[in-house]
Amino acid sequence: MIPRKAALKEIDNVFSYFPICGLIGSRQIGKTTLALEYAKKYETYYHFDLEDPVDFQKLLDPKLLFESLSELVIIDEIQRCPELFQFLRVIADRRQDLKILLLGSSSRDVLEKSSESLAGRVSYVELSSFSLTEIEDPKKLWLQGGFPKAYLAPDAKTSFFWLKNYITSFVERDLRSIGFNLEPQNIRRLLAILAQSHGNVANYSDISKTIGISNVTVKKYIDILESAFIISVLKPWFENISKRQIKAPKIYIKDSGILHYLLGVDDKIDLHPKCGVSWEGFAIQQIIGKFAHDKNDAFFWRTNAGAELDLLIVRDGKKTGFEIKYTSVPKVTPSMISAMEDLELDELFVVTPGNDTYLLKENIQVVGLYPLLKRMDITCHY
């Protein structure tokens, strides 16, 4: 098992302030493994999986069950039983001796619609794919993605076979199990389109025409895929400047392994036409995971005239820009200068696949992705 020390620390941080911690993330991302690893801190813990009919039945009468429980209670796939949230509010208020760890495969926004009664009692930790600072083989992580079973597969062929089955299960079964009743064929076609347009500004009209569904339905499907952690929707940033700016979001397949499976990439990612944009998405997800409190801190910026910035993180009153370059010799571009001036950036990092760090221009620094992530190893999502 690959240690996930940062995530374990985040759970500890949440429990120092709240009686309930919500651990959320994609299915098969390792939430249960992490929760059981965290449970080793306790002499006594209880694990209930709501996909297990026996455990589900036990939790139909939670008041009686919880009377016999102490220390730590883990409830897996909590989105399958939203009726529990009201009861957990009462437990959180009455049982100061009990910590509750909820595991869910839907986003915080979706869960919070069912858990308004837990306001002030719960905070969430999102478990993402493996970080570059957690593993030993950066190229393998980029190629095969950060799902444990995909990354730990012995080769790309085995990894993509697992990812193929993962996507099939997600489309045909998992979406329904987390509360979304969608047409599988349309979701498959949408995923194929999003893979081909990975990192592009979204054009809902073109997508709706290609699939044969309405713009409203496309946006609904996009929201659902984001809620299930399959895609990442990067919002545009607007400045009060004279230049006209792009107002539609960018969409990325969140896990690089899933992207490469959908694109039909083999083990030679460096030779693939989508190599550059694939690495851009990979780097952006890694940076957001380390540097942003949540997705509301992260943006991109682009003007109609062509000036752009791949990633802007606004946090604690500071604007930090990131330009992603799959090259070892990046140069200062007019877009970088425009971004520095128009957005009044505090600093701009030009992120490369290498390990070198040096100043390209005042407040514009070239830095390798791995050294940058090590510098930013300060995640905290509560």
What does this structure look like?
The longest helix is centred in the middle third of the chain and has 22 residues, at 156-177. The chain has an eight-stranded mixed β-sheet, sandwiched between helices. A five-stranded parallel β-sheet has the order 2-3-4-1-5. It contains 16 helices and 13 strands. The protein has helices spanning 5-15, 31-38, 53-58, 62-66, 84-94, 108-114, 138-144, 148-151, 156-177, 184-196, 204-211, 215-227, 256-263, 275-291, 334-342, 369-375; strands at residues 20-24, 45-49, 71-76, 98-104, 122-126, 231-236, 250-253, 298-302, 308-315, 318-324, 347-352, 357-361, 364-368. Helix 10 (184-196) crosses helix 13 (256-263) and helix 11 crosses helix 12. The chain starts with a helix and ends in a 7-residue tail after the last helix.
Overview features:
alpha/beta; 382 residues; 41% helix; Arc Repressor Mutant, subunit A; 2 domains; 16 helices; Rossmann fold; 8-stranded mixed sheet; 5-stranded parallel sheet; 19% strand; disordered C terminus
Topology (SSEs and partners):
Elements: H1 5-15, E1 20-24, H2 31-38, E2 45-49, H3 53-58, H4 62-66, E3 71-76, H5 84-94, E4 98-104, H6 108-114, E5 122-126, H7 138-144, H8 148-151, H9 156-177, H10 184-196, H11 204-211, H12 215-227, E6 231-236, E7 250-253, H13 256-263, H14 275-291, E8 298-302, E9 308-315, E10 318-324, H15 334-342, E11 347-352, E12 357-361, E13 364-368, H16 369-375
Parallel strand pairs: 1-4, 1-5, 2-3, 3-4, 6-8, 10-11, 11-13
Antiparallel strand pairs: 6-7, 8-9, 9-10, 12-13
